[in-house]
Amino acid sequence: MIPLIIGGVTLAVVGYAIKEICDEEGCPWDDNTSTSATTEARSDTATVKSSKKSKEFHKLKKNIYKISMQEYQDFLEKYKIKNNDIATDTKLEKQKFSDEQITDEIESYTNQISSTLEILSHNLSLGIRMVQNEKTLEDDVIEKLNSYANSIYNLSHVKLIDRWHSVNQVEILSVLVNAMGQAAQKETLHVDLDAA
Q1: Which one of 61, 70, 140, 196 has the lowest number of neighbouring Cβ atoms within 10 Å?
Q2: Are 107 and 128 members of one domain?
Q3: Are the CB atoms for 91 and 157 separated by under 8 Å?
Q4: pTM for the full model?
Q5: How far is Cα 21 from Cα 15, in angstroms, rounded to an integer?
Q6: How many angstroms separate the CA atoms of 126 and 170, rounded?
Q7: What are 75-91's pLDDT values in tens digits?
């Protein structure tokens, strides 16, 4: 019991001494804390305001990716096919970058990726619908659908800005060139109206 009393008295004396110093000279941690808190609040607000374009780009990619991968996964399960190149249940990692980092070059890449993803998604969806009633599939059809899905996966996961905050140009161009080869034209469904 005596150690508790001595500890309590010591704590009270130290607290009183600190209070006196803070009253006379001000507490040294007050300036840093308020400045740091204000700076952090400002930078958080700036980040929220300035990352609008990266959020829009991520949302577009995520919507296309989610729908395409689900449709593709259903197709793989229906025909008991495996694609070891991609994992259809992989979540899309969010990459934040500020609007100030978006140069004309990066904006051009985001536009190309977005439009290519839309075409590939259309092609994949239409290709799957065209074979949905088939009992067996030709190898070239499977290969074509796999290549659409692989391109969607790769485009969705490409990082625009690397960890050093510079444009990841080589990877972007490599993935874009491969994907654009698959998206050269939209698949179309041909219907013979004379047969009716």
Answers
A1: 196
A2: yes
A3: no
A4: 0.69
A5: 10
A6: 31
A7: 999 999 999 999 999 99
